[in-house]
Amino acid sequence: MGKNYIDIENDRGETLRYRKHANGRGLIANGAKVHPSALVEAGAYIEPGVQIGPGARIGRGVWIEPDAVIAMNAEIAPHAHIGPGAAIGAGAKIGVRTFIGAGARVAAESLIGDDVNVGDGESIATDRRGLRLAA
């Protein structure tokens, strides 16, 4: 039987240990908190300090940087990138290859389409069709 973790060296020469999430086999860094009911698909990387709530779905190839928060039932489509300290609200849906910048906020139940770039520190709220709501 294979090991349930992998060690990866970062850009600063530090070795980080990632464990394979039981529900999907995505890689979870030590110090991240992922609810057991969340799905983290293989090929996803969850960095230290990240919090992922119950029922969240994280697709293949997603990279979630340190200290980001993914609320319950949020869906992050394949190959999206969630920046450090970003927050994704409950039930929000993030599209394929979408980039959410550092410290950005996506409101609950928002729909962010494919290939969208949400800037650092930006706050965004949409309806379920993806139309932006007034702040």
From TrEMBL:
<dbReference type="InterPro" id="IPR056729">
    <property type="entry name" value="GMPPB_C"/>
</dbReference>
<dbReference type="Pfam" id="PF25087">
    <property type="entry name" value="GMPPB_C"/>
</dbReference>
<dbReference type="InterPro" id="IPR050179">
    <property type="entry name" value="Trans_hexapeptide_repeat"/>
</dbReference>
<dbReference type="GO" id="GO:0016740">
    <property type="term" value="F:transferase activity"/>
</dbReference>
<feature type="domain" description="Mannose-1-phosphate guanyltransferase C-terminal">
    <location>
        <begin position="33"/>
        <end position="123"/>
    </location>
</feature>
<protein>
    <submittedName>
        <fullName>Transferase</fullName>
    </submittedName>
</protein>
<dbReference type="InterPro" id="IPR011004">
    <property type="entry name" value="Trimer_LpxA-like_sf"/>
</dbReference>
<keyword id="KW-0808">Transferase</keyword>
